[in-house]
Amino acid sequence: xxxxxxxxxxxxxxxxxxxxxxxxxxxxxxxxxxxxxxxxxxxxxxxxxxxxxxxxxxxxxxxxxxxxxxxxxxxxxxxxxxxxxxxxxxxxxxxxxxxxxxxxxxxx
Length: 108
Hints:
By secondary structure, the chain is α+β, with helices and mostly antiparallel strands. It has a single domain (about 5-100), classed as Zinc finger, CHC2-typedomain (DNA Primase, Chain A, Alpha-Beta Complex). It has 4 helices and 5 strands; from the N terminus they run ααβββββαα. The protein has helices at about 5-15, 20-25, 75-85, 90-100, and strands spanning about 35, 40, 55-60, 65, 75. It has a 5-stranded antiparallel beta sheet with strand order 1-2-3-4-5, covered by helices on one side. β4 and β5 (about 75) form a beta hairpin.
């Protein structure tokens, strides 16, 4: 198995193991979101916008999207952590999530 393939599998394991709402809760964002079915909406924590419905979370897909023209960012939990941690790399964001929640470690 090549390194890129192994990394892709690891990223998928992280995304399956940790929900986007768990990440939002860790950053204190979840309590600020408004529920609309399986969608959550609120102020974008990345660019700190003022519109309380620009930042949208699709819980079923585990994805986020900011609809502000100032931001426009979107993606999965790894991309979200990358942005919230000041733009750290995707690999470093994945390692942070894995460390926080014990993903990829053998359970004793």
